[in-house]
Structure prediction request, 235 residues.
Amino acid sequence: MAPSFNVNSEAGLKNLDTYLLSRSYISGYQASKDDMAVFAEFSVAPPSKYTNVVRWYYHIDALLKLSGVTAAGQGVKVESSIVPEASTSADTKGKAPAADDDDDDDVDLFGEETEEEKKAAAERAAAVKASSKKKESGKSSVLLDVKPWDDETDMAKLEEAVRSVKMEGLLWGASKLMPVGYGIKKLQIMMTIIDDLVSVDTLIEDHLCVEPANEYIQSCDIVAFNKICEFLQLL
Prediction:
């Protein structure tokens, strides 16, 4: 059974705010009549300091409006599993069960969607997907180890071969030579890529380890691969 909350008191609002800290709904994983039961207790919107309650309140309010309910609880019959904080026998004495005929007048907020609602939801999802498509392309910073065949390999030519690879979404960065041993050095080079446009595996296999670059390059290894957060991209 779902817990009850006295939303007309500071203590009750505080308890509800704590309860909703890790939950989206009063009970279960989707809106139910338990949410309606608590929502109906509010005469006005909750104070902004109760952030979790405010989030939940306006979410339920939006569901009501989408269901055609223009005033809180109007036309809605609430039957929840919430246990009241206090009850007396006088409250329930003499009450008769509701007639089945009244069910037709209720608004089923959480029933099955109609074909029109499904179509509208699909159109909204398509519009959101289209508008956010460009935002999905993240960036990554990649550090590569590029190894020569031996100590006689011209490292300047090797780096030139690496930087000669051009493709959309690829930007070469700083580089340096690092000793490996026995007089052999390797090239460490940074690059920034747009994730949706550049595959590092494809770059290595189809561009750096084939002719003519493989005249100088024996192998390539990924040393570091880090996502560039959106905040840094905006700076």
In short: Confidence is low (pLDDT under 50) at residues 72-80, 85-93, 101-105, 230-235. The chain is about 35% helix and 20% strand. The helical segments are 10-19, 33-39, 51-66, 89-92, 115-131, 155-163, 200-208, 230-234.
